[in-house]
Write a structure and sequence with these properties.
The chain is an alpha/beta fold and 441 residues long. The protein has helices spanning 14-26, 59-62, 71-83, 95-107, 122-137, 154-159, 164-167, 200-212, 240-250, 320-335, 338-359, 388-401, 423-440, and strands spanning 38-42, 45-48, 53-56, 114-119, 141-145, 177-180, 219-224, 254-258, 282-285, 296-301, 363-369, 372-377, 403-404, 406-408, 412-415. It is built from 13 helices and 15 strands. Bound molecules: pyridoxal-5'-phosphate.
């Protein structure tokens, strides 16, 4: 798998077609984007069942941040699984989950003592965080943001507000969630411009919502994504998170930071919130934490621990093999300077996207941090009409030409390659991207 991309049969090839058909018969409907049927992968390169080779700009939706099947992660998984796979770390004890918890408490922002609750996914992190804030404050309300995505289980779904399809037919939601507009400067809900707006969209929480509609003393927590992910890779302007945090502090409201997508080095810092000066009360992560082993972790201020046996728990949390993969993932990010690489490659990516935007007017807005980037496609730069059909066409053309992409938001494409992608791999993916944008324009 050295030459990439290398497309031998336009995907889906014959073997892929057969598997896609069987999948549609036996596997329930989810969110399938492209008929790429993977067989093996290494780093940023994926081979499908028909021998096609792709450059991967998706990392399994932001999961394989240190590259697919990093040999040291594979070894750590092999070693741990030959010793002990599962022993229910919620009910019994083993050392590796303590090792990982200690490490997570050390690498997350804030110096005060913290504790870790292990989950198996991002949405389970949201659910656990909801329970933690309710348990501690016994207050009924939560503030969330329009276009936020925190997962699809029923508690998370009440805070998720990125697309109507996520919520249709599932009402009523968990009561008590109030949504306010996020700092989406490209399409400001208040038709203002940063910095002249003075962070109006943050200040309005206190100046209007708390004045007219939401009793602040009833609010348990504010849930934020430091960069909105599924909602379209929306990066809030400088100062916005700190403004929200200071409103939260003034009203004794807990701040919960969802790092499921922006965490684990994706934004060029270990956690997205480190681009601000804010230390959240609760930070939770999943996706990239264990390089593909299903795992998540909620890191909470020690004072917020339940402290009562049975108030919250699970079966698989802190699974030994997932812990081994997570410890190795963190070690690799630190030891191999992957944050530096993410920032260097992020600059290459940004420059190239900006250069393309000079030629292709359907590229309405390029935005991102580190290696968490997206382009929002528009039919017309003046009206900003969403170019949904064109975006979908680019994603399709790209996989046919050997680049794996994922959409985000209404008409954006996200670029989330591995943090250790090489410049050569990045540029070969960008060459394909440019040819697809050209043809779809
Ligand atoms: C910010 C954020 N939170 C929560 C979730 C839910 O994670 P999961 O799909 O692992 O349940 C996602 C998934 O995309 C996410 O991006």
């Amino acid at each position: 798998m050295t030459k990439a991309p290398d497309i031998r049969t336009t995907p889906p090839g014959p073997k892929a077609k057969e598997i896609v058909e069987r999948d549609s018969k036996f596997v329930a409907t989810t969110t399938k984007t492209s008929p790429i049927v993977a067989k093996r992968a290494r780093g940023s390169i994926v081979e499908d069942v028909d021998g096609n080779v792709y450059v991967d700009f998706t990392c399994g939706i932001g999961v394989t941040n240190v590259g697919h099947c990093h040999p040291e992660v594979v070894d750590a998984i092999k070693k741990q699984s030959s010793e002990l796979i599962h022993f229910a770390g919620t009910d019994f004890y083993y050392e590796i989950q303590v090792d990982l918890a200690e490490k997570l408490c050390k690498i997350t922002p804030g110096d005060s003592p913290k504790k870790v609750f292990y989950t198996n996914s991002g949405t389970e992190g949201t659910e656990a965080s909801i329970k933690i804030v309710k348990w501690n404050t016994q207050k009924p309300l939560i503030i969330g943001f329009i276009r936020a995505f925190h997962g699809r289980t029923m508690g998370s779904l009440a805070i998720t507000a990125s697309k109507p399809v996520h919520r249709a037919r599932f009402a009523p939601m968990m009561p008590g969630v109030v949504h306010i507009p996020f700092a989406y400067c490209y399409r400001c809900s208040y038709k203002m411009e940063f910095p002249d707006c003075g962070l109006h969209c943050a200040k309005i929480l206190e100046e209007l919502y708390f004045e007219a509609h939401v009793p602040p003393e009833d609010v348990a927590a504010i849930f934020i994504e430091p960069v909105q992910g599924e909602g379209g890779y929306v990066v809030p302007p400088k100062g916005w998170i700190d403004e929200i945090a200071s409103i939260a502090r003034r009203h004794e409201i807990l701040l919960v930071d969802d790092e499921v997508q922006a965490g684990f080095g994706r934004t060029g810092k270990m956690f997205g919130i480190e681009h601000s000066n804010t230390v959240p009360d609760i930070l939770y992560t999943a996706k990239g934490i264990a390089s593909g082993m299903p795992m998540g972790a909620v890191i909470l201020d020690e004072k917020l621990d339940f402290g009562v046996q049975g108030a919250h728990s699970n079966t698989f949390g802190g699974n030994l093999v997932a812990c081994a993969a997570a410890l190795k993932t963190i070690e690799l990010i630190e030891r191999e300077g992957m944050l530096d690489n993410a920032n260097r490659m992020g600059k290459v990516l940004k420059d190239r996207l900006d250069e393309m935007a000079g030629t292709y007017p359907i590229m309405g807005d390029n935005r991102g941090l580190g290696l968490m980037w997206a382009t929002e496609f528009v039919k017309d730069r003046a009206t900003k009409e969403f170019a949904v059909k064109e975006r979908n066409e680019i994603v399709k053309l790209a996989y046919e030409r050997g680049l794996i992409l994922l959409p985000a938001g209404k008409s954006a494409i996200r670029y989330i390659p591995a943090l250790n992608i090489t410049e050569e791999e990045l540029n070969s993916g960008l060459d394909v991207l440019e040819s697809c944008i050209k043809d779809a324009s």
